Amino acid sequence: MQSFIVEHHLGEVIDVYCGGPDIFNGKVAACADNVLTLEQNGKYTHIAIDKIIALWRS
Fold first, then answer.
1. Which pLDDT does position 17 carry in this prediction?
2. Mapped to the 3 state alphabet, what secondary structure does the chain carry?
3. What pLDDT is stored for residue 19 in this prediction?
4. What strand order describes the sheet that includes 23-32?
5. Class of domain 2-57
6. Count of beta carbons in the 10 Å neighbourhood of residue 48
7. Per-residue pLDDT of the chain (58 residues; tens, 9 = 90+)
8. What pLDDT, on a 0 to 100 scale, did the predictor assign at position 44?
9. How far apart are CA 42 and CA 21, in angstroms?
10. 1-6, long-range: CB within 8 Å, 24+ apart, which pairs?
11. Domain extents for the chain?
């Protein structure tokens, strides 16, 4: 999943679904060490890749 995100989504704005009400949105700032980092309005969200169920372009 990490290489897929880096190759296809780095720098893009995406939505990330982690189950239940947990949907995160932001620009893919980094993806390393099994952690996805999203940036939105100067704030960063760090998501464990193994918790991601689905992601898509916003």
1. 98
2. CHHHHHHHHCCCEEEEECCCCCEEEEEEEEEECCEEEEEECCEEEEEEHHHCCEEEEC
3. 95
4. 43-48, 35-40, 23-32, 13-17, 54-57
5. mainly beta
6. 10
7. 999 999 999 999 999 999 999 999 999 999 999 999 999 999 999 999 999 999 999 9
8. 98
9. 23
10. 1/49, 1/52, 2/31, 2/32, 2/34, 2/49, 5/31, 5/36, 5/49, 5/55, 6/31
11. 2-57
- This prediction has a pTM of 0.92
Residue with tokens 């239940």: 20
Contact 25, 13 (CB under 8 A): yes
Locate 15 and state its tokens: 């939505």
Cα 54 to Cα 41: distance, rounded to the nearest angstrom: 23
